[in-house]
Every structure is written in C-alpha cells, then in structure tokens.
Amino acid sequence: MSKPSRIPLLTPILPDQAHLRPYLEQIDLSKHYSNFGPLVKALERRLEKTFGQHTTIPLHVATVSCATSGLELSLSSLGLNKGSRVLVPALTFVATLTAVIRSGLVPVITDIDPATWLLSPDIAEEALRNSGASAAIVVATFGQPQDTIAWSAFQKKTGVRIIIDAAGAFGSQWVKATDIPVVYSMHATKSLAAGEGGFVVCGNPQVKSLITQLSNFGINLDPEAGLPVGHLSYVGSNAKLSEYHAAVAHASLDSWDEVADLRARIYQRYRHLLNASCGDTISWQAGMTVAAPTTLSIRVGSSRQRDRLEKRCFQQNIDTRRWYQPLLHQHATNIAPLMTMPCPVAESVASDLIGLPFSVFMTEIQIQQVVDTVYQSLEIAATQHQ
Ligand SMILES: *Cc1c(COP(=O)(O)O)cnc(C)c1O
Asked: What is the pLDDT of residues 281-332, one digit of tens each?
C-alpha cells in the first residue's frame, strides 16, 4: 500500500493579497514604513477598542515586533534588580524562559495545575516561599486564559510583579485588571496572525509609553518628559512593529470573526469525534472553550501509549508534536543560572501529552483519519464497544 498523503501538524491562515491590498495602498500613499506610522497607530486604537469591549477599565496597547520582545520590554518596565528571581511555569514555549534570562534575571521554574496545565496563584504562592521571587511570567498555555483579576489580587497581596504571556491566546485572554501587562504574539501560527509581531495590553498609560519608548531603543520622544527629545533615557531595543506587519494584522482582524468561528467549529467536531472513539482513555486541558484554537493536544494515559501513537502516526504520514517539550528545566540546565521547584505535575503531563494535526484546512476525512489512528494505537479497541 502506498503511504497516505501527509497530514501536516499545523497550517497557518493569513490574509491573501486581495485583502492586504487596501492597506498596502495606504502605505504607498503615506510613505511611512515604520517608527509608529499610521497603520501601527490605527492598529493600537483598534485593539484597544476590541479589548475595551470586555472591560470597563481603560486599556492601552503598545505594538511590538514579537511577543518575545514584548516580554523582555515588559520585564524591563518593572525595573527589577539584576539577578532577581522570576517564576515561570515548566510547561511553556522557550521564549518565556529566554526573555527572563536575557533580561539579566533568574528564572524559577514552577509546577502547573493538574487540570488546567497552568501556573496558578496557589502554586505561585508556594513557589514564592521557597524562592524569594520578585516577579512571575504566568502563561495562558495553549490559549487557555489566566484570571487577570486573581493575579492582580496576588500582586497586591505579595508585591510580586505579574506579567501574563498570552502569546497564543488572543480571543480568549481578556484584560480586566489595570496593573498587569499582558503580552500577545502575532506570529503566523498564532490566533491573530501577522507573520511576525506582537503587542502588550495594559491599564497603565505610563507603562504603555515606557514599553513604546523601550521598543524604539529607549529614545525619549516626549517633549513633556523633562529630558530633551531624541536623547536616550533607557537601554531599550529595536522592537517596533513595521507598517507592513500592521497591514497584515489589520487584514487579519477584518476576517477574525470568520476565522475564529471556523477554528472553533473544526476543533469542537474533532474533539467530539476523539471523545466518541477514545472516551476516558484520553484527557484534555480543563477550562473554557478556547475562542480560536490553533493547536490540539491530548493526554493519552502513559508514555508507552504516546510512543505507540507517535509510531503509528509516523507510519500513516500524520505529523505530531510534543508541544512545549522538553519542559523548561529539562531544556536549560546548562544555559544559564536557574532555579527549579519540584515539578511533578508538569512532568506527569509531559509524559503523555501529544499535539495532533490541527488547522482550518483539515477536511472531515483527514480528521477521521487521525481519530481512527489514535483509536487504533491506544489499545482501546479490545476493551470498549461503540
Ligand atoms: C509563540 C509564543 C511566544 C513567542 O511569540 P513570538 O511572537 O514568536 O516571539 C512566547 N510565549 C508563548 C507561550 C508562545 O506560545
């Protein structure tokens, strides 16, 4: 039998040239290509409006060139002493960790909640006692939102500064507290895609201005700042979003509702079919239904089951990925000083977690093919009847 055609892990969906054209024409006319041009400014206003629909507090958006830079600049904005400790969850993308290290801070790798797979205030409080951390980057892992109000209360109670890494969570993670910067990515694979790009949402206009200034090398552009315009007032970076990336982001927002709806429908259908075949043999991240899923991960019960599934998928030309593995403390033992709290839950989740193919381009037949492959590999055929 010939190998079945490949089912890719992930296929991004971005606006095509017809939908980009009106924005590119605006760039031709404005001749403004970067440095806070009209499309970037309009994008920030547009996102402020979107986020404003979910809260009564005034919110401010600072665009950046990617979420990784957004995290680094948000950390800079806190003004922590060099070597300060920052909690990060063990199960996240490596950028959460590298942002801390590149900022001259020491990551403290922390366990996650067994149901939501998130770092929670309770876990953070425990980790705090043993690490003396002065900040935390908490992650909206796999798009599952963090509770900004609970984290704001945690910040007030403990004095520990909180940043939320919501890189992949646009559409599910809203901002309801004024004192926590929340960082989003617009990488091609994320729910709001611009190719590359990101933004920080926060309730404090001074924090927004500071992040904007840090994204432009740290140069002061405010005539009221008590410092000459054009003088350097911080050590920043170049993390500006270009007008071209803003153009793509605008076009992505134009089709957001439609694409999010498609993502949600395909995800629900897929999840229903997996549950119908595999029942309790598989398990899912607990929490809300994510608005616009970009990946699909399940736990399959044991590392042995996962090995079998991976092998079978490989034979069937179905791509899989162990998302966010190895865990941060398994990645990084030699790259920089770091602290690791006991992470039994993260290690257990990581032992049988697997990402299956997911995109808006998947057909019903492809979904069924993946579901059948999962079912056949998991040794449930013998014990369970439809
Ligand atoms: C994608 C991702 C990032 C990095 O975002 P970029 O915009 O590519 O820099 C950071 N953290 C998490 C959790 C992510 O999923």
From this structure: 999 999 999 999 999 999 999 999 999 999 999 999 999 999 999 999 998 6
Whether 137 lines ligand 1, by a CB cut-off of 6 Å, is: no
Length of the chain equals 386
Q: Cα of 9 to ligand 1 centre, how many Å? A: 17
| Helix intervals (H) in the chain | 17-30, 38-52, 67-78, 94-102, 121-131, 148-158, 205-214, 243-254, 256-278, 303-315, 328-331, 344-352, 364-377
Tell me: the pLDDT tens digits for 148-193? 999 999 999 999 999 999 999 999 999 999 999 999 999 999 999 9
**d(C-alpha 46, C-alpha 40), whole Å:** 10
Whether the CB-CB separation of 161 and 177 falls below 8 Å is answered with no
Q: Sorting pLDDT into bands at 50, 70 and 90, what band is 133?
A: very high
Question: What spacing in Å lies between the alpha carbon of 187 and ligand 1's midpoint?
Answer: 8
For residue range 230-273, list pLDDT tens digits in order. 999 999 999 999 999 999 999 999 999 999 999 999 999 999 99
Which atom, in ligand 1's list, is nearest to the CA of 71?
Answer: 10
Beta-carbon count within 10 A of 56 CB:
6
Q: Residue of the nearest CA to atom 6 in ligand 1?
A: 67
Q: Is 93 in the pocket of ligand 1 (CB under 6 A)?
A: yes
Ligand 1, atom 8, residue with closest C-alpha: 187
